[in-house]
Write a structure and sequence with these properties.
The protein has 191 residues and is mainly alpha-helical. The protein has one domain (2-53, 95-190). Helices cover 64% and strands 5% of the residues. It has helices spanning 2-24, 39-49, 71-84, 103-125, 133-158, 163-187; strands spanning 54-58, 90-94. A two-stranded antiparallel ribbon has the order 1-2. Helix 5 (133-158) packs antiparallel against helix 6. The radius of gyration is 21 Å and the shape is elongated.
Length: 191
């Protein structure tokens, strides 16, 4: 049990530190978000609109008060999509104050810890088959590959997140899991 927690805690720290370095010091995310010289005008318009903090897609069909399986909403959405095919749209994540809570890094490392614990469980369950460093490392990289495919690549395809944003997230995923995988592959060499 001690080995499980050591592997997980060190692995989570590796994932967390890479992410921190990637966003704060390395050029991985320099162009994740574009600058607009009209940002003050845009922000003033959004603020004056009175919208509440949240995620918005514009234009879209009014979904306030819509039930889980609302056929009228589905029909309206289908008509809306046909009418707006090929037209510009925007997604906005809006908050009334840009403040980083001290809990954000704490929650981030807890999430990293839970993710690494899942990988450690996989490595532990498959230990009899994963005899080499490369085999153990490759299993961890496959987890990173699944994460990238099932999150960032789907955002690229379905939500049309731009490549300049997705690219940094994918780099982070492979670097985090590659480095963490090297640690875990080495640490589990004699389980």
């Amino acid at each position: 049990m001690k080995k499980f927690f050591i592997a997980s805690i060190v692995g989570a720290l590796i994932v967390f530190v890479w992410s921190f370095l990637s966003w704060e010091f390395l050029p991985v995310h320099t162009h994740s978000f574009h600058y607009s010289p009209k940002q003050d005008t845009i922000m003033n318009a959004i603020t004056k609109s009175g919208i509440e903090p949240g995620a918005y897609m514009m234009p879209t069909v009014d979904n306030r008060g819509t039930g889980l399986f609302d056929s009228k909403y589905r029909d309206a959405m289908m008509e809306f999509q046909k009418a707006n095919a090929g037209k510009p749209f925007a997604m906005i994540i809006y908050d009334k104050g840009m403040v980083m809570s001290p809990m954000q890094p704490v929650i981030g490392i807890i999430i990293d810890l839970l993710a690494v614990m899942c990988v450690v469980i996989i490595l532990t369950l498959a230990k009899d088959r994963l005899k080499t460093f490369f085999m153990r490392w490759w299993i961890v990289m496959i987890v990173g590959f699944v994460v990238a495919l099932n999150s960032y690549m789907l955002e690229l395809i379905w939500m049309q997140f731009p490549w300049h944003f997705i690219k940094g997230e994918i780099i982070d995923t492979f670097m985090e899991w590659g480095l963490c995988g090297a640690w875990l592959a080495w640490y589990f060499r004699k389980v």
